[in-house]
Design a protein that fits this description.
By secondary structure, the chain is mainly α. The chain contains 9 helices and 2 strands; from the N terminus they run E-E-H-H-H-H-H-H-H-H-H.
Length: 234
């Protein structure tokens, strides 16, 4: 697997390198591209000679700022992924990183998830959905809540976990969301939806999450989901 999330020395190019390593142009390009994809320009931050660790909250705020600037003039309230949502996303990132042994893949899937969530919220709050689409959006939310409650139940009641059940609910959510945004978002965004739901509905990942090696992560995810459900935010 990738090395742990630790702080790295930053070269003059702004790319983190470990002791005794030289910054590679290809590595610089990949990190710069990650930042460009988020807000359209290079944005690797320097903080006292170190690179910032991955943060779902920070990424979500940058995505929200960019998207809302593109719909300036519309009556759209400012959106935020709150602290609880950010904590759940951070745990999903850690689970994905440990399961795939790839920090880059884990970051990409969480970034895709955040972009999709914010774009759908902007569409909804800007009144872009028609009556039929609003009905579909309500059914999608209901299905998503069902998935969250099922995930909680599997985490709280021993020997009830079934990967196929949870994977099936996530697949239904994916298909409903694709139908909802079909005429509003680009094929690139449709691809992001596929990547996110296909990743988290992977039976292997789900089985690992509910196994003994991911108990701490699962507990934090369930705590966050329970709070989001109780507060009506999911």
């Amino acid at each position: 697997c990738d090395e742990p999330e630790v702080e790295h020395r930053v070269s003059r190019r702004g790319v983190g390198v470990g002791p005794g390593q030289r910054a590679s142009p290809r590595g610089a390009a990949s990190l710069y591209q990650l930042s460009r994809d988020t807000h359209g320009k290079t944005g690797t931050r320097r903080t006292a000679g170190t690179m910032e660790p991955f943060s779902s909250r920070s990424l979500a705020l940058r995505v929200e700022k960019k998207l809302l600037s593109e719909v300036a003039g519309r009556s759209v309230a400012r959106l935020f992924i709150d602290e609880t949502g950010s904590e759940v996303l951070d745990e999903l990132y850690r689970v994905s990183k440990e399961y795939t042994c790839s920090r880059a893949q884990a970051q990409r899937v969480i970034k895709d998830l955040i972009k999709v969530a914010v774009k759908v919220a902007v569409l909804h709050r800007s009144g872009s959905f028609g009556p039929g689409e609003l009905d579909l959006a309500a059914r999608f939310r209901q299905k998503l809540r069902q998935g969250a409650m099922t995930a909680l139940s599997f985490g709280e009641v021993a020997f009830t976990f079934e990967a196929a059940v949870l994977a099936g609910l996530l697949t239904e959510c994916r298909d409903m969301l694709l139908e909802l945004v079909q005429r509003h978002l680009t094929p690139k965004s449709h691809g992001r939806i596929h990547r996110v739901f296909d990743h988290f509905s992977d039976p292997g990942l789900l089985t690992a999450l509910y196994g003994p090696g991911f108990t701490l992560h699962l507990g934090k995810i369930c705590d966050g989901l329970r709070k989001l459900l109780d507060e009506g935010k999911l």
